[in-house]
UniProtKB/TrEMBL annotation:
Family, per entry: Belongs to the glycosyl hydrolase 33 family.
Keyword Lyase in record: no
Spans annotated as Disordered: 1-31
Catalytic reaction list: Hydrolysis of alpha-(2->3)-, alpha-(2->6)-, alpha-(2->8)- glycosidic linkages of terminal sialic acid residues in oligosaccharides, glycoproteins, glycolipids, colominic acid and synthetic substrates
GO biological process, one term: oligosaccharide catabolic process
Lineage summary: Bacteria, Bacillati, Actinomycetota, Actinomycetes, Kitasatosporales
Domain of life: Bacteria
Cellular component, GO, one term: membrane
Ranges for domain Sialidase: 116-403
Name the UniProt record assigns to this protein: exo-alpha-sialidase
Keyword hit for Membrane: yes
Length: 442
């Protein structure tokens, strides 16, 4: 099923803009697409906004404590860019109605060296989840204060390319990007592709299809991420690429069921395999868009959207064994992470030992993007209040990136009247563990 109910109205076909060559019948299975050059575009004005997050404490209380001490990780990386106090707090890399696109949605952001690369779906004709959709990107050399020209990373002709899920290898800086495709007039069938960049996102390799490696027969809907993926640093498989994903399948009784899984590669993205598989029985949890964060002891925290299951909780979470190929605890509802049915960002900061969750907090609608912080690996959560950077108001999908030891970047859907007006980037300082105000909720 489509990722986002309520935005799947079939768009009216429109001719391609003149600046883009007319599309043919589309690539056959396993066909590679030529890499796209940078396109000069109009500069997008920076928009400053003040951010506020409701300080509402929360608690999970469902995961056991680790049985051994956390493994020591690599030294903290240098800050992403020298953005001094007051230099910039927010910027707007994507504005709907510009660059020949009706709108931009589905953010993902990674950092390679001192360069940030922000990805999005560029939706040509409407905000619908299928139609003429490209994967686009912009780069920032200064920690998200300014952004370079927009580039088309993946163009599937008139069909849909989306769900950008990038990962960065910490030693080589290579960006590995997985995306999904489907016909413009349908959400099925779904196919999976991989490509990479060795120059900090300036160019990308042709997209190569890997559907046969990662999508079993009988699966229907299939989605990577969206949002950033992992390159493992701890445990028995350092350097492993690990990506979050979800799927639907037809149960023996004929009904459509929802599941979550991971993909992994131990050879830099050349070959891919299925990792853990979670297909909860019953209707309490209908797992959808997932995110992963590696904990210092090598375990993986997995979060998922509950796509209108019977549980009142809109979020679910589980723990994966080191390596990400097996469940340690099953997915369970997380009522403390309250909010609407929506995707969420997830990030672990090894230095301060904090797990960070980003999502709208208003349970009635997609509004009030909130960072929630856990100092105990997801057992309890507290809300971070930052009135300068995360203002109340419409908000949707989001992704997180580490900018320094105590600063994160948030790329998220927002706007004044609706959450699809812009993709805005905010630099948010993270307090030390124990300094987040307010008690945890029981």
């Amino acid at each position: 099923m489509p990722r986002d109910t309520g935005t799947t109205a079939k768009p009216k076909p429109k001719p391609k803009p003149a600046r883009r060559a007319a599309a043919g019948p589309g690539p056959p299975p396993c066909a590679a697409l030529a890499p796209r050059p940078w396109r000069p575009v109009r500069a997008v004005p920076a928009v400053l906004a003040a951010l506020a997050v409701l300080a509402v404490p929360a608690v999970l209380g469902l995961f056991p404590a680790p049985r051994h001490a956390a493994a020591a990780g690599p030294a903290d990386p240098a800050p992403a860019a020298p953005a001094g106090p007051g230099r910039c707090e927010t910027s707007v890399p994507f504005v709907s109605g510009t660059e020949g696109y009706h709108g931009f949605r589905i953010p993902a952001v990674v950092r390679t060296g001192r360069v940030l690369v922000a990805f999005a779906e560029g939706r040509r004709d409407s905000f619908a989840d299928h139609g003429d959709i490209d994967v686009v990107a912009r780069r920032s050399p200064d920690g998200g204060c300014t952004w370079g020209p927009l580039r088309v990373v993946t163009d599937a002709g008139r069909d849909t390319a989306g769900n950008p899920t990038p990962a960065v290898h910490p030693l080589t800086g290579r960006i590995t990007l997985l995306t999904c495709r489907n016909p413009s007039d349908s959400v099925l069938p779904r196919r999976v592709f991989v490509q990479h960049s060795d120059d900090a996102g300036a160019t990308f390799s042709p997209a190569r299809e890997i559907t046969g490696q990662v999508k079993p027969e009988g699966w229907q809907w299939y989605a990577t991420g969206p949002g950033h993926a992992l390159v493992l640093r701890h445990g028995p498989h350092p350097g492993r690429l690990l990506l979050p994903a979800n799927h639907t399948y037809r149960a023996p009784g004929g009904e459509t069921r929802h599941g979550a899984h991971s993909l992994y590669s131990d050879d830099g993205g050349r070959t891919w395999h299925l990792g853990y598989l979670a297909q909860p029985p019953g209707d309490a949890l209908r797992l959808s868009e997932t995110a992963l964060a590696e904990l210092p002891d090598g375990r993986i925290y997995a979060g998922a959207r509950n796509q209108y299951g019977t549980s009142p909780a809109t979020r679910a979470a589980a723990l994966l064994a080191p390596g990400g190929t097996a469940l340690l605890t099953p997915f369970t509802p997380q009522p403390a992470l309250r909010g609407p049915v929506v995707q969420a960002g997830l990030l672990h900061l090894d230095g301060p030992g904090l797990l960070i969750h980003s999502a709208p907090a208003d349970p009635r609608r997609r509004a009030d993007l909130t960072l929630r912080i856990s100092a105990d690996q997801g057992r309890t959560w507290r809300d971070l209040s930052d009135p300068k950077r995360l203002p109340p108001g419409p908000a949707g999908y989001s992704d997180l990136v580490r900018l320094g030891r105590d600063t994160v970047g948030v790329l998220y859907e927002t706007g004044r009247a609706a959450s699809y007006e812009t993709l805005t980037f905010a630099r948010v300082p993270i307090p030390a563990p124990g300094s987040v105000a307010g008690p945890a909720a029981p």
